[in-house]
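Here is one chain, start to finish.
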Amino acid sequence: MHAMQYELTLPADYDMDIIRARVARVSPLLEDWDGLGLKTYLVRERGVHGSPVNQYAPFYLWNTAEGMNRFLWGGAFQRLADDFGRPAVRQWTGLGFAEGSGARPAFAVRRRRSVPEGVELTSLMEDAVAETERLAAQDGAVLAGSAVDAHRWELVHFSLWEHDTPQADGDVFEVLHLSAPGRDRLPRGRQW
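Its structure:
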């Protein structure tokens, strides 16, 4: 599993209905994308759920590097880059994934944190997987995942929730749409 996210931070007075219309228009393009586990079309609005910014920040879980690369280099990502400029694309290697009992996500929480120097890596990664399982078991959780960027030494926890009171710490996003053509093929549990 590969995790990926890019963020488009928009002006404070940006009409977020433009992003909502864009998502409604482009989301059908990924409903059967080979290699995609899921894509969550996420937004944060300034002043809502503690967000300091207006932001469009889709989050992806990929089943295959080929599917991810085809998205990035095959033209789909180019349309976004043409419209908004080319954002930095963060990528993480999957650590864990778990399904919750919730059905339809309305909110997402993303928490990034540094991996401190001197920690025992196996133990820390096991703890990240345990946190994934804990989050997925919470009331209202739809799913949870964790991943690591070994270049920046950064952990990311990502979870989807049915309600606006998620039981997770981090940046809260509204889910505009979920495309999940390969969600059933995302590997469950620990990824090594």
